[in-house]
Amino acid sequence: MSLQSSRMPPPPPQRPRKPAVNLPPVVGTLIAVNVGIYLLGAVMPWRWTSELLLNLGFVPGRYSLPGGLGWQALLSPVTHQFLHGGGLHILINMIMLAAFGTGVERVLGGARVLAIFLLSGIAGAALHYAFYPDTTIPVVGASGAISGLFGAVLRLMAKQAGPGGGGKRILPVAAIWIAIAVITGFTGAPGAGEDVQIAWAAHVGGFLLGFLALDLFAIGAPLPARRRPRRPSHLRDIDDDEPRH
């Protein structure tokens, strides 16, 4: 009569669970800062929030109208990127920041994605000023900065695809992005109120900087290897028959 051991076999080791949202550190920090500032403004008295948007939002008239220059003019090209005018505004922007910024940070690193974000936002503000130099309506939002990240994403995709096909594929996408930005600037975005104006020039300016200056940001960065195009099966068969040296 054989006796079986009553000891149960040990359970198989469990693999560590991956988090549902796996954001790289700089993109995660940018989202946290934007959301934190928005929530802070939401619990402030309305008058304080208005003063915050007016002083830290980008106002082109500060640079062209008499008496406009001050500390706000120095800070607002950067600070306006961290202010948002409503819940839908920040929700859409943060989703796009997570989508575009994650890919750029994982390829170029945190310092470069931060530089693209901030400089694209500044470029967007500059182009908005070029078209509307006398307006006193504040521009708020990270849309210009995020547009720059999208432009960088397109360029990185083209680089990975290799010479020839990559550039031809992204140019129509870039043209469509710019066209949508311009159209929504004059017609309004779906779901936005009638009193909400879209700063289309800020979108375009940020996109152009990220798209055109990607090579400068990528200096010294280990870019992913280009994908080799697949050869037709009959050519692969011929190559297989050839002697290898």
Mind explaining what this structure looks like?
- The chain has helices at about 25-45, 45-55, 60-65, 70-80, 85-110, 110-130, 145-160, 165-185, 200-210, 215, 235-240.
- The protein has one domain: Rhomboid-like (Rhomboid-like fold, Up-down Bundle), CATH 1.20.1540.10.
- It has 11 helices and no strands.
- Residues about 240-245 have low confidence and may be disordered.
- The termini are far apart.
- It is mainly alpha-helical.
Q: How is this fold's topology laid out?
A:
Elements: H1 25-43, H2 46-56, H3 61-64, H4 71-79, H5 87-108, H6 110-131, H7 143-161, H8 165-187, H9 200-212, H10 214-217, H11 233-241
Helix pairs in contact: 1-5, 5-6, 5-7, 6-7, 6-9, 7-8, 7-9, 8-9
How would you sum up this structure in a few lines?
This protein has one domain: Rhomboid-like fold (Up-down Bundle), CATH 1.20.1540.10. It contains 11 helices and no strands. It has helices at 25-43, 46-56, 61-64, 71-79, 87-108, 110-131, 143-161, 165-187, 200-212, 214-217, 233-241.
